[in-house]
Amino acid sequence: MNLSILARASILSSTLTSRTLNRTIPHRPISSSSLSYTPTSPNPKTPLFLRPPIFTATLTDLKKFQTWAQTLASSVGSSFTESDNGPCSEILHRELNWLIQDSVQTPDILSLNSDSKTDAVVKLRAELGDLYLLWKQRIEERRPFQYVVGCEHWRDLVLSVEEGVLIPRPETELMVDLVEGVVKERVGLKRGLWVDLGTGSGAIGIGIGRVLGDEGRVVAVDVSPVAVQVALFNVRRYGLEDKVSVKQGSWFEPLSGLEGQISGLVSNPPYIPSGHISGLQAEVGRHEPILALDGGEDGMSDLLHLCNGAASMLEPGGFFAFETNGEDQCRFLVDHMESVHNNSFCDLKIVPDFAGVQRFVTGFRS
Amino acid sequence: MALNLMKSCAKLCPKTTTLTPATPVHLRRFQIHFNILNSNNTTSFSPNRTSSFRCATGDNNTPPVSSSGNDGGRELVAMSDEKLLSQCEMDTYKSSGPGGQHRNKRESAVRIKHIPTGIVAQASEDRSQHKNRASALARLRSLLALKVRSTIDLETYTPPPELLQILPAKSTIRGSENGPQIGPNNPKFALGMQALLDLIFAVEGSVSDAAKKLGLSTGALSRLILSDDSLRQAVNEFRASKGMKPLK
Q1: EC number(s) (chain A) (predicted)?
Q2: Less CB within 10 Å around the terminal CB: N or C of chain A?
């Protein structure tokens, strides 16, 4: 598994080097500034696993780091879980293994455990000192693991993420399956124009771009310049520049002139009620962009805006899917669409996520 | 609860999976056909929803049913992902709380339950839920191969091609048209393993009798059985139930 991830990474990095890595920081040693996590850089940071293995450490020193990091992870126990439903030691240990997979060129060497090779030299994608720093940030500052390694594994994609961009959630993976199911049945939609509003890392837009036919196009929109840069990086990494375009703007703003021409509209907008923001798990509340989380007093402001926009932007027969906070928001939306936009939409459905939470509202423009 | 499930899962080695039931499950051929004919679920799958298919008896632990020509087990293992998933209930580990944007816990573990047989497969070792789903499904397939038995008629028995494919080249009944031997890491191994287990059950666990049917020496068949942990375990469990010594 470790190897396949790395192999995939190296294939991607070698085939896309000229297009993607050159515009970031391919061969520059990681300076302390690349470890800081204010969303300032106009250029997205290269995820750890895509950086060149230009650093070295002895196996002994790497093992020392591993032992230190394991001890730190163990010291957490269930304290995070008890305080804000954060990760327990066990999850942190798993994350540490992933950090090692992403940063060590041959991570298996650690599990071989042969004492004779202690002075073997291991190639790293970050300086050993930086690995200490990163793991401290993970534990002491509760910096999300995905920001620490600069990527998230989502569906069959590995997406670059950084501070300022919402980390795509596993629940949202289902959005792409929903679209895939719809375009299988309604082939016309496969050739149409799709829109992902509030795309963040570009996850849904890229996922959809890969299930549409050759003629299908996606416009991924985000108001945040950091998100636009990160989404562009991810689109390029998957070679989808011709299919998925990324535009900066608020919701429907960049789509003027396309009224009634959109085949599909998907969005995972901010939907957490403002009052719940302060009680969020530290990884989310302290580090992820509030712009992508806070949905106003009842969490519905943006969802309602999207519903209203869907009525004017979708072509007849066009499909929409929105992610919500759960059952209450789903029901509210369906009621709203049936009462306020009566006859505008049909086939409205509430779809549960894998954990059984009523998560998505889908339907078609009449 | 999520935590406990993860813990119990982490204790198992990566390839292991929670199994229910402990005894082989027998399926009636018509039940499987019933499902295929009525399967109109062409979308990828329905998350967390029970498929419309249920065992006709409504009981997963029906006693073994013998019917000649029953190859329901084979159909299950060879079924497309979509069809197999349409017979399954799937969920991630249920987590308390609202999930979605509220959470960052990388709970990407997936659990799939095959409704007709009650067999459960899960996967949590990958970083993406999507991939864990694929691993869980592959595991489910191999569990179905291990657990669902079809009866065979020894009088007229000829090994099916998928079984010939997993035999070593020295088998006297294996022709060159069967290609190179398929090993346990090949996804096609499950079908061969299932056919082999059907045979071993039919000969009451006797490796030497099974070996004769396959044109192999007893030693060669033993080595094949021992080459895959789950296959070895299934054979040894069956032999133990017949009061026979385990293969080592």
Answers
A1: 2.1.1.297
A2: N
Q: How far apart are CA A277 and CA A274, in angstroms?
A: 5
Does the domain formed by A27-45+154-365 have CATH 3.40.50.150? yes
Domain count, chain B: 2
In a domain, B162, yes or no: yes
Instruction: Grade residue B235 by pLDDT with cuts at 50, 70 and 90.
Output: very high
> Could you give the C-alpha distances from A138 to A160, A161, B10, B105, in angstroms and in order?
18, 15, 22, 13
Q: Which of B151, B183, B218 is the last residue of a domain?
A: B151
**How many helices (DSSP H) and strands (DSSP E) are in chain A?**
14, 11
Smallest CA–CA distance from A299 into chain B, residue? B101
Range of the domain at B181: 154-248
**pTM, rounded to two decimals:** 0.72
Judge: B101–A325 Cβ closer than 8 Å, yes or no.
yes
Chain B CB contacts of A352 under 8 Å are: 47-49
The reply to whether B124 and B175 lie within a common domain is no
Tell me whether B102 touches chain A (CB under 8 Å): yes
A133, B45, B50, B51, B184 from B86: Cα distances, Å: 47, 6, 8, 6, 26
**Considering CB atoms only, which of B7, B97, B101 is closest to A85?**
B97
Domain assignment of residue B194, yes or no: yes
The answer to whether residue A265 scores a pLDDT higher than 80 is yes
Cβ–Cβ below 8 Å for A86 and B105: yes
Residue A258 in this model has a pLDDT that exceeds 90: yes
* Chain Cα centroid distance, residue A26: 22
| Partners of residue B6 in chain A, C-beta under 8 Å | 90-91
Between chain A and chain B, the number of residue pairs with CB atoms below 8 A apart is 129
CATH code, domain with B89:
3.30.160.20
- Say whether both B61 and B182 belong to one domain: no
Domain boundaries, chain A: 27-45+154-365, 48-149
Q: Which residues of B touch A172 (CB under 8 A)?
A: 100
Is residue A144 within 8 A of residue B104, CB to CB? The reply is: yes
- Say if the ipTM goes beyond 0.90: no
- Whether A353 and B10 lie within 8 Å, measured CB to CB: no
Partner A contacted by B128 (CB < 8 A): yes
